[in-house]
Amino acid sequence: MATQTTTGTGVEAEVLRADEARFEAMRKADWAGLDAALADDLTYVHSTARLESKAEHIANLRGGKPHYRGIAPRERTVRVTGDVGVVNGVSEMHVERDGKEQRFTVRYLAVYAKGSGRWRMTAWQSTRVPDA
């Protein structure tokens, strides 16, 4: 399980669980779970600056562009204001794209919104951490 550095209310823990569930759906290629974890108006910005909608993001993942072999989030903090939760974290990524494997670290910002009793990710922005 990922290291959790946030403290506070149960609501913050709910957002963190939503973040973990989304990563898990990506790792396991659980398309129904991923669809449920993402807001319909998702804006997903990869560490390469590629921008995707929810439909584009899921279609690309289903097509293995990229295939996430491993995702290990850590150093996550959560802030919640009303029905919006913001996660700041770091994650080790292991992806395969076009037959080439890559391992890298990203610093990310994930925004979750609560609707119909469920937290869904509405925005993602990640930046690669430079190699030391």
Describe this structure in words.
Mean pLDDT is 90; it is low at 1-6. The radius of gyration is 14 Å and the shape is globular. The chain has a 6-stranded mixed sheet. It is built from 3 helices and 6 strands, in the order ααββαββββ. It has a single domain (10-120), classed as Nuclear Transport Factor 2, Chain: A, CATH 3.10.450. Strand 5 (100-115) and strand 6 form a beta hairpin. It starts with 9 loop residues before the first helix and ends with a strand. With 132 residues, the protein is α+β, with helices and mostly antiparallel strands.
- N-to-C SSE series? HHEEHEEEE
What share of residues is helical? Answer: 25-40%
**Approximate strand percentage:** over 45%
Overall number of strands: 6
The CATH first-level class comes to Alpha Beta
Give unreliable regions as ranges.
1-6
CATH architecture: Roll
Alpha carbon gap, first and last residue: 26 Å
Strand order of the largest sheet: 2-1-6-5-4-3
Biggest sheet overview:
6 strands, mixed
Fill in the CATH topology.
Nuclear Transport Factor 2, Chain: A
**Overall morphology:** globular
Coarse structural class: alpha+beta
- The number of helices is 3
**Tally of individual domains:** 1
The rounded Rg comes to 14 Å
The overall pLDDT, averaged over residues, is 90
Oligomer status: single chain
